[in-house]
Amino acid sequence: MKKIVYTTLAIGLAVTGLGVANPTTASAKTTYLPKTVRSHTWYRLTDGAQGGFHDKTTFKGNHFTVKVKGSSLRYHWHFTGLKKHTKTTYYGRLHYSKKRSELVKVKIFSHKHFDIIPKHVFHLAGNYTGNESYGAMIFKR
User: What is the pLDDT at residue 19?
Assistant: First the structure.
């Protein structure tokens, strides 16, 4: 009986000891948009359903500042949970303020053009169905 208890205790210590000794497999690496996007000044343009934006946008990592043309307004937005899906497509959450955010898709067309498409676009059925005619934020330089 004592032999079984000691064996069980030894196995229990070995298992917990291995759990402490092995590092976790979770990665704390942050995904960023490509350097071709982050290292330039962009202009937010309109889609087919909006008025005349031409806002100057600058990036620092996953944070970016949108300066509204013709006023002193500046918006500070940032991405969280950004994941690379393909070479030209990223998914993540765009935070407009502390209380307002939405899931978005970032579609990179070239080093001079990319779009941010929200997951749910008003009057469109399906996820990420917005395009440059309706629903997407267009950025060009």
Answer: 46
